[in-house]
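Hello support,

Our group uses your service weekly, and this is the first time we've seen a run hang past the timeout. The protein is 8-oxo-dGTP pyrophosphatase MutT, NUDIX family. I'm not sure whether the cause is the sequence or the server load. Input pasted verbatim:
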Amino acid sequence: MIEQRQLNLHQAGTVRVVRQSAALCYRVQRGTPQVLLITTRGSGRWIIPKGNLIEGLSPSGTASQEAWEEAGVTGTCTPNAFGQFLHYKRRYKKGSAVYLVDVYPLVVKSLAARYPEWQERKRRWFSLGHAASRVNSPDLASLLRNVEHLYH
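Update from on-call engineer: The timeout came from a worker crash unrelated to the input. Re-ran successfully.
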Protein backbone atom coordinates (compact mmCIF):
# COMPACT_ATOMS: atom_id res chain seq x y z
CA MET A 1 0.00 0.00 0.00
CA ILE A 2 2.74 2.43 0.87
CA GLU A 3 6.04 2.96 -0.80
CA GLN A 4 8.67 2.19 1.82
CA ARG A 5 10.83 5.18 2.67
CA GLN A 6 14.30 4.59 3.97
CA LEU A 7 14.85 6.07 7.38
CA ASN A 8 18.19 7.37 8.49
CA LEU A 9 19.84 4.35 10.16
CA HIS A 10 20.72 6.46 13.17
CA GLN A 11 17.05 7.38 13.58
CA ALA A 12 15.76 3.85 12.96
CA GLY A 13 17.08 2.56 16.26
CA THR A 14 15.67 5.40 18.35
CA VAL A 15 12.13 5.94 17.07
CA ARG A 16 8.90 4.11 17.68
CA VAL A 17 6.18 3.45 15.11
CA VAL A 18 2.67 4.70 15.91
CA ARG A 19 -0.44 3.76 13.94
CA GLN A 20 -2.93 6.52 13.18
CA SER A 21 -6.13 6.97 11.18
CA ALA A 22 -6.93 9.96 8.99
CA ALA A 23 -10.01 11.15 7.15
CA LEU A 24 -9.73 12.47 3.62
CA CYS A 25 -12.82 14.67 3.80
CA TYR A 26 -14.15 15.40 0.32
CA ARG A 27 -17.04 16.75 -1.69
CA VAL A 28 -17.75 17.15 -5.39
CA GLN A 29 -18.60 20.66 -6.62
CA ARG A 30 -19.69 21.06 -10.25
CA GLY A 31 -18.14 17.71 -11.11
CA THR A 32 -14.80 18.52 -9.46
CA PRO A 33 -13.62 16.80 -6.28
CA GLN A 34 -12.42 19.01 -3.43
CA VAL A 35 -10.73 18.03 -0.17
CA LEU A 36 -10.90 19.76 3.17
CA LEU A 37 -7.55 20.59 4.75
CA ILE A 38 -7.06 21.85 8.28
CA THR A 39 -4.14 23.58 9.94
CA THR A 40 -2.04 22.08 12.68
CA ARG A 41 -2.45 23.69 16.07
CA GLY A 42 1.23 24.50 16.46
CA SER A 43 2.81 25.55 13.18
CA GLY A 44 -0.30 26.19 11.08
CA ARG A 45 0.75 23.73 8.34
CA TRP A 46 -2.02 22.22 6.19
CA ILE A 47 -2.92 18.57 6.93
CA ILE A 48 -5.91 16.24 6.94
CA PRO A 49 -7.69 15.29 10.21
CA LYS A 50 -5.85 12.41 11.86
CA GLY A 51 -5.07 10.93 15.23
CA ASN A 52 -4.03 7.90 17.23
CA LEU A 53 -6.36 4.91 17.20
CA ILE A 54 -9.19 5.29 19.73
CA GLU A 55 -9.96 2.31 21.93
CA GLY A 56 -13.42 0.94 21.19
CA LEU A 57 -13.55 2.42 17.67
CA SER A 58 -12.54 0.86 14.38
CA PRO A 59 -9.76 2.61 12.45
CA SER A 60 -12.38 4.20 10.15
CA GLY A 61 -14.42 5.15 13.23
CA THR A 62 -11.31 6.87 14.60
CA ALA A 63 -10.95 8.76 11.30
CA SER A 64 -14.58 9.93 11.52
CA GLN A 65 -14.12 11.02 15.14
CA GLU A 66 -10.96 12.98 14.28
CA ALA A 67 -12.77 14.66 11.36
CA TRP A 68 -15.48 15.81 13.79
CA GLU A 69 -13.10 16.99 16.53
CA GLU A 70 -10.56 18.73 14.27
CA ALA A 71 -12.75 19.99 11.40
CA GLY A 72 -16.41 19.85 12.47
CA VAL A 73 -17.18 17.32 9.74
CA THR A 74 -20.09 14.92 9.75
CA GLY A 75 -20.39 12.42 6.96
CA THR A 76 -19.90 8.89 5.81
CA CYS A 77 -16.48 7.29 6.15
CA THR A 78 -15.66 4.16 4.18
CA PRO A 79 -14.60 1.13 6.27
CA ASN A 80 -11.54 0.46 4.11
CA ALA A 81 -8.42 2.61 3.86
CA PHE A 82 -7.47 3.63 0.34
CA GLY A 83 -3.90 4.60 1.14
CA GLN A 84 -1.26 5.28 3.75
CA PHE A 85 1.42 7.82 4.40
CA LEU A 86 4.33 8.16 6.81
CA HIS A 87 5.43 11.15 8.78
CA TYR A 88 8.11 11.69 11.38
CA LYS A 89 7.77 13.76 14.54
CA ARG A 90 10.62 14.81 16.73
CA ARG A 91 9.34 15.52 20.22
CA TYR A 92 11.70 16.32 23.02
CA LYS A 93 9.48 15.22 25.93
CA LYS A 94 7.70 12.24 24.36
CA GLY A 95 10.51 11.02 22.13
CA SER A 96 10.61 10.80 18.36
CA ALA A 97 8.22 8.62 16.40
CA VAL A 98 7.34 7.54 12.89
CA TYR A 99 3.60 7.65 12.28
CA LEU A 100 2.02 5.19 9.85
CA VAL A 101 -1.29 6.79 8.89
CA ASP A 102 -4.12 4.87 7.21
CA VAL A 103 -6.34 7.20 5.16
CA TYR A 104 -10.10 6.69 4.91
CA PRO A 105 -12.26 8.62 2.41
CA LEU A 106 -15.10 10.52 4.10
CA VAL A 107 -17.94 12.09 2.12
CA VAL A 108 -18.79 15.35 3.89
CA LYS A 109 -22.49 15.85 4.60
CA SER A 110 -22.16 18.96 6.76
CA LEU A 111 -19.70 21.28 8.48
CA ALA A 112 -20.45 22.56 11.97
CA ALA A 113 -19.66 26.18 12.85
CA ARG A 114 -18.50 25.09 16.30
CA TYR A 115 -16.75 21.84 17.11
CA PRO A 116 -14.16 20.77 19.72
CA GLU A 117 -11.14 22.45 18.03
CA TRP A 118 -12.88 25.28 16.14
CA GLN A 119 -10.83 28.00 17.84
CA GLU A 120 -7.51 26.22 17.30
CA ARG A 121 -7.58 25.39 13.59
CA LYS A 122 -8.46 26.83 10.21
CA ARG A 123 -10.15 24.73 7.54
CA ARG A 124 -10.38 25.29 3.81
CA TRP A 125 -11.53 23.45 0.68
CA PHE A 126 -8.89 22.78 -1.99
CA SER A 127 -8.79 21.06 -5.36
CA LEU A 128 -6.79 17.83 -5.16
CA GLY A 129 -3.84 19.32 -7.02
CA HIS A 130 -3.77 22.47 -4.91
CA ALA A 131 -4.12 20.41 -1.71
CA ALA A 132 -1.13 18.29 -2.77
CA SER A 133 0.96 21.45 -3.19
CA ARG A 134 -0.09 22.84 0.22
CA VAL A 135 0.64 19.87 2.50
CA ASN A 136 4.13 19.54 3.94
CA SER A 137 4.29 15.73 3.88
CA PRO A 138 5.70 14.33 0.61
CA ASP A 139 3.84 11.03 1.20
CA LEU A 140 0.50 12.78 1.76
CA ALA A 141 1.09 14.99 -1.28
CA SER A 142 1.77 11.89 -3.38
CA LEU A 143 -1.41 10.26 -2.09
CA LEU A 144 -3.43 13.36 -3.02
CA ARG A 145 -1.88 13.47 -6.50
CA ASN A 146 -2.69 9.78 -7.04
CA VAL A 147 -6.33 10.35 -6.03
CA GLU A 148 -6.47 13.22 -8.53
CA HIS A 149 -5.56 10.85 -11.38
CA LEU A 150 -8.69 8.80 -10.66
CA TYR A 151 -10.85 11.75 -11.70
CA HIS A 152 -9.13 12.50 -15.04
